[in-house]
Design brief:
This protein is mostly helical and about 425 residues long. The protein is built from 18 helices and 10 strands. Helix 2 packs parallel to helix 5, helix 13 packs antiparallel against helix 14 and helix 17 packs across helix 18. The structure holds (2R)-2-(alpha-D-glucopyranosyloxy)-3-hydroxypropanoic acid. The site of (2R)-2-(alpha-D-glucopyranosyloxy)-3-hydroxypropanoic acid has 10 residues, from helix 2.
Length: about 425
C-alpha cells in the first residue's frame, strides 16, 4: 500500500494505531473496553486487514484461535484471555462452564457456541497478500474440521444448510431476522436478576440489545450449556434453531476458499467445490424469496421464513456461484430505498427500523465489506467502487467505530473497533476478490 500517495493518509495511520493498541501480544481484542477477549469472526476480518500491515500478527491471531478448537471441530465464538478478570465481560468463562483447553502451553477457556466461518477466506487472503504456504498448510486441516462440524453436526433442518442455536452465533446479535423465532423463547426477567450485564455499563444502553433480548440470550445459552453443548435432536429439543442466509453464504464461501487453499497445499479441491455448489443451491432453493428479491432466515422448528428484510439476506451476493438473476435482484434491493449504499443492517422503511440499536438499523463495516466484494465478484465494478468510497469517507469522518448511525454517519458503539480498522486497511489496498 502506498500510504504517502493515498488520499486517506490520516485514515491509514488511525486504523493502524487502533490495531496496535488492540494487539495483546498473542491476539487482537475487538475492543479494549467492551470486548476484552478474542472473538472468532472478528479474528478473520482482522486478519484480512493485518495482511497488509502485519501479516505475522494475522497468522498468529488465527493460530491462537484455532488452538482452542474443540475436538469435534467447532471453533468457539470467544476464547477467553486468562489474564482478564471474570467481572470484565459477561457472560464470561464461569458462565459457560467449558473445561479448559491447552493452548501454547497455557490453559484457556472458551464459549461453546460458534460464529460464521470467515476464517478460510481470511487465510486465503493473508496468503495472497503475503504468501505463506506453510501457514496455510498448518491451518488447512483445522479449517476443514471447522466446516465438517458445521455441515455434519449443525444440519438440524436436514436441507444441507447450517443451523444456528443462538443469535450470538450469527454475529448479528439482535437482528430483526430472529424476532419471530425468538418470540417463542421466554424473556424471563429472573434470568437478569441472577446476573449483571456488563455491556450497558461500557456502552450506551439504547445502542445495545434490550433487557428482554438479553434475558433470552442468557436463557438460550444456559439451555445449550445444560444439554452439554450437544447437537443431537436440536430441532426437537432446543428452543431456537434457525438457518441464517449470511452464515450459510459464508459457509459456502469458506468451501470455495478451501478449494483454492487445497490447490496450494496439495489437497483435492473437488470436494470443496462440490460442497460450495450444494450449499449455494440449498440457499437459493430454501431461503430465497422471489417476491422480496432477497434471502430470509428460516425457522427450522416451524419451517417458516422470517418476513423481516435484514441485511443478512443480501450477504449471499458474495457467492460467485449465485444465479445471475438472484445476484441482480440482491443488488437492486441493496440500492433501493429499503437499504442504500452503505447498507444499514435493516430495512429503512420498516416501522421498527432503529437508527441506533446495534443490528436493527446501524451501518456495520464488515457486512458492507462483504457486499463490496460481492459487487466486484458479480461485475458491478461501479457500484463496488461507490460503496468502497462511501465506507472510507464514513470512517475517515467518524473514526473506527463499531457501527454508524445510518442517516448522520455518527460513530456509535465502541470507538476503537478492530474490524473497522482492519477492513479499512483492506479497502485502501483494494485487493481484488478471490474467486468465491
Ligand atoms: C457477543 C465482538 C462481537 C462481534 C459480534 C457483535 C458483538 C457480542 C456482544 O461483538 O457481539 O458475541 O457482547 O454483543 O454483535 O458480531 O463478533 O466484536
Amino acid at each position: 500500500m502506498d500510504h504517502a500517495r493515498s488520499p486517506y493518509r490520516r485514515l491509514t495511520s488511525t486504523a493502524e494505531a487502533v490495531l496496535n493498541r488492540n494487539w495483546t501480544g498473542d491476539h487482537m481484542v475487538p475492543s479494549r473496553t467492551l470486548y476484552p477477549h478474542q472473538w472468532s469472526w472478528d479474528a478473520a476480518f482482522i486478519g484480512i486487514g493485518l495482511a497488509h500491515v502485519a501479516p505475522e500478527r494475522g497468522w498468529h491471531d488465527l493460530a491462537s484461535l484455532f488452538a482452542a478448537q474443540w475436538p469435534d471441530g467447532r471453533v468457539p465464538h470467544i476464547v477467553f484471555d486468562p489474564g482478564v478478570a471474570e467481572k470484565d465481560y459477561f457472560p464470561g468463562p464461569a458462565f459457560w462452564e467449558v473445561p479448559p483447553v491447552r493452548q501454547d502451553g497455557r490453559s484457556v477457556r472458551t464459549t461453546g457456541i460458534v460464529q460464521p466461518p470467515v476464517h478460510a477466506l481470511a487465510a486465503l487472503h493473508l496468503h495472497r497478500v503475503s504468501p505463506a504456504a506453510d501457514r496455510l498448510r498448518e491451518l488447512y486441516p483445522a479449517l476443514v474440521a471447522q466446516q465438517e462440524y458445521l455441515l455434519k453436526h449443525r444440519d438440524a433442518g436436514g436441507l444441507g444448510l447450517v443451523s444456528i442455536v443462538h443469535p450470538w452465533e450469527s454475529g448479528l446479535d439482535n437482528s430483526p431476522s430472529w424476532d419471530a423465532a425468538l418470540a417463542r423463547v421466554p424473556a424471563d426477567p429472573e434470568v437478569l436478576a441472577r446476573y449483571e450485564r456488563r455491556d450497558t455499563s461500557k456502552a450506551v444502553a439504547s445502542h445495545r440489545p434490550t433487557n428482554a433480548d438479553y434475558a433470552r440470550y442468557i436463557g438460550l445459552a444456559e439451555s445449550y450449556r445444560d444439554a452439554g453443548y450437544r447437537d443431537f435432536d436440536l430441532a426437537e429439543t432446543h428452543p431456537f434453531v434457525v438457518e441464517c442466509p449470511a452464515f450459510n453464504a459464508l459457509t459456502a464461501a469458506a468451501e470455495a476458499a478451501l478449494a483454492e487453499i487445497a490447490t496450494v497445499v496439495g489437497a483435492d479441491p473437488a470436494p470443496h467445490l462440490e460442497r460450495a455448489a450444494a450449499i449455494t443451491e440449498a440457499l437459493v432453493g430454501h431461503l430465497y424469496d422471489r417476491e422480496t428479491g432477497q434471502f430470509h432466515t428460516r425457522d427450522v422448528r416451524t419451517g417458516e421464513l422470517s418476513k423481516a428484510r435484514c441485511v443478512n439476506g443480501l450477504v449471499p451476493l458474495i457467492l460467485a456461484g449465485l444465479p445471475g438473476e438472484v445476484a441482480e435482484s440482491l443488488v437492486a434491493v441493496a440500492e433501493s430505498a429499503r437499504f442504500g449504499l452503505p447498507v444499514p443492517s435493516y430495512d429503512r422503511t420498516a416501522a421498527d427500523f432503529d437508527t441506533l440499536r446495534y443490528w436493527r438499523g446501524p451501518v456495520w463495516i464488515n457486512i458492507n465489506w462483504l457486499l463490496w466484494r460481492g459487487l466486484a465478484t458479480h461485475g458491478y465494478a461501479d457500484r463496488a467502487d461507490r460503496l468502497r468510497t462511501a465506507m472510507l469517507d464514513l470512517v475517515e469522518r467518524s473514526g473506527c467505530f463499531e457501527y454508524f448511525q445510518p442517516d448522520t454517519g455518527e460513530g456509535i458503539g465502541t470507538p476503537d473497533f478492530s474490524w473497522t480498522a482492519a477492513l479499512v486497511l483492506d479497502l485502501l489496498a483494494e485487493t481484488p476478490p478471490e474467486r468465491e
